[in-house]
Amino acid sequence: MAFNVRKDQASRAVIVHAVLLSYTLIALYPVFLIVINAFKSRKGIFREPMALPTSKTFSLSGFEKVLDKADFGTYFFNSMSVTIITIVVVLLLAAMAAWALSEYKFPFNTALAIYLAIGIMVPIRLGTVSILSLMVDLGLVNTLTSLVLVYVAQGLPLAIFILTEFMHQIPKDLKEAARCDGVGEFKIFFAVILPLVRPAVATVAVFTMIPIWNDLWFPLILAPGNGKQTITLGVQQFIGQYVTDWNAVLASLSLAIIPILILYLIFSRQLIRGLTSGAVK
Amino acid sequence: MADLKLDQICKSYGAVDVLHGIDLDVKDGEFVVFVGPSGCGKSTLLRIIAGLEDITSGDLMIDGDVVNTKTPKDRGIAMVFQSYALYPHMTVYKNMAFGLKLAKTDKAALDQRVRAAASTLQLDSLLDRRPSELSGGQRQRVAIGRAIVREPKVFLFDEPLSNLDAALRVQTRIEIAKLHQKLKSTIVYVTHDQIEAMTLADKIVVMNAGKVEQVGSPMTLYHHPKTRFVAGFIGSPAMNFTRVKIIATADETVTVEMPGGGTAILPFAVPAGQVGNDVELGIRPEHLELNRAGDLPVSGEVEVVEKLGDSTYLYVRLHNGDLVTLRAPGHSRAKIGETVVAAADGGAAHLFDANGQTFAKVNCPAQYSADE
């Protein structure tokens, strides 16, 4: 009996791992292809796209082209600023809103939470035309501000939703102990609550940052010029109507992975469990 | 340090009344314990004193000031929670210093207060640890330390020992008692454990269903319970109760018909109007003595024997079907199924009317009285 149970569990584990492993391979293979081909000459890319770079096909010409272009650094800088500023604003506002929704009782509390949650279901791109005309009216076209504003709006609903759930889990005694300790509400939020939901905050940061970094739509519409292009737009300049410089495209894509990978590593280190252990009981 | 006064405190959640007009005076330096079954409102009352719950009506005064609308931090209280509620991301030192640091206390004074509290509670060597690295008892001491460093007017304890194991509970109980002697502070302590209440309190407040049943010193509650509820709640094992009928009253005695037949004359002043009424007779297990004659004899078959070493509890089924607990000496050789006889003095008895109110005992013998 016990043996059967163990066998059952083992076979289940094998199946689960097989599924996850094949999914990982499928997801990583395109990235792998981009990176290996970025290090090949143009001929190498077209002759044997699946092959690893050999001494014959190895070439850094794509990277040289990309790094020669002075404005590429600007694009990186633009993408980084938009992503980081958005993350900071989204996390701050979402955490504060989530705290208010989960901790304080006020009229229309639930209605407000539902209203904010609806934002998860409605794609922001449906409003592109009105967003564009709004940005034109505000004179924000071709500024990074316009992107930050749109991305904050895009990221907030899910962030609030996730953080509210986490804040509900913080023991009530802890907040009350802090109140008895003479800690003000703002300080309770920043010094007690925020450190405790750090894993959730990191999760939300990852959720928020990836779509922003990868977005082509809004940079193309709201900030396509004036040196305010993001990295995804920067890659587009190598893709022509008739000729595409694949070396440069693949090299720039490979480079574009690096900053977001670093950001991800920073946040994922916060995804540790058991942070509240020892608080109560 | 301060006194505390509760004046007709009521609390309702919507249509549900939880507290019905609580009056209480707590003197400076007094150790007051709220005790009662779960759901009696004792924790709610403590939270009201702390300022964590609003008062529906009535006044709460600390040091003569009405503090009904003041926030917890402006009331000068410190609370120790059942769940400890330590800040998990801070070390023991920071946990204790957090409140003071925010109050912009001078750094040297803060350090001195934290270290003094830590040495009082033997936490010196643990100051750099996180709560997750501490045992339950140590965590509870940190929670107490966090309260001490604030030097509050009133300490509030909400079932602080409930999460500790039995041995640690006794040890921490003694530490709290010592702490009170040392700090001479006003303490309000909530527990459902009557032994904690008896051992710690200067004054016990027995609560039931949102009302105060009786306020008094531990020995007063033990010897002179005002109601049947208090009589049943204070004392372990609980008092034995049986229904008796009043058949005659005199100035200072009452004659009752015992359930097994026979009568007993007891020293109570009972109004003549009560003759013919059923009342309840209470007798504590420790006041029943084996193999002797007395005003209140019982006899029956032993059903359960609990040997505690220093004493043995016998659960005896009387002929009328009542189960009576009695305390025998530790060397008692009574066995299950054996028939035993025991008796108690009339002076040890308690008599309650149909509403659970006690009848006044007359000429109470010294060993059954709280008077010194």
Keywords:
heterodimer, A: 281 residues, mainly alpha, MetI-like fold, B: 372 residues, alpha+beta, Rossmann fold, OB fold (Dihydrolipoamide Acetyltransferase, E2P), 6-stranded mixed beta sheet, 23% helix, 34% strand
Describe what you observe in this structure:
- The complex is a heterodimer of chains A (281) and B (372).
- Chain A is built from 13 helices and no strands.
- Chain A is mostly helical and 281 residues long.
- Chain B is elongated and about 75 Å long.
- The model of chain B has no long low-confidence stretch (mean pLDDT 90).
- Chain B contains 8 helices and 22 strands.
- Helix content of chain B is 23%, strand content 34%.
- Chain B has a 6-stranded mixed beta sheet, with helices on both faces. Chain B has a 5-stranded antiparallel beta sheet with strand order 13-12-11-15-21. In chain B, strands 16-20-17-18-19 form a 5-stranded antiparallel beta sheet, with no helix packed on it.
- In chain B, strand 7 (154-158), helix 5 and strand 8 form a beta-alpha-beta unit.
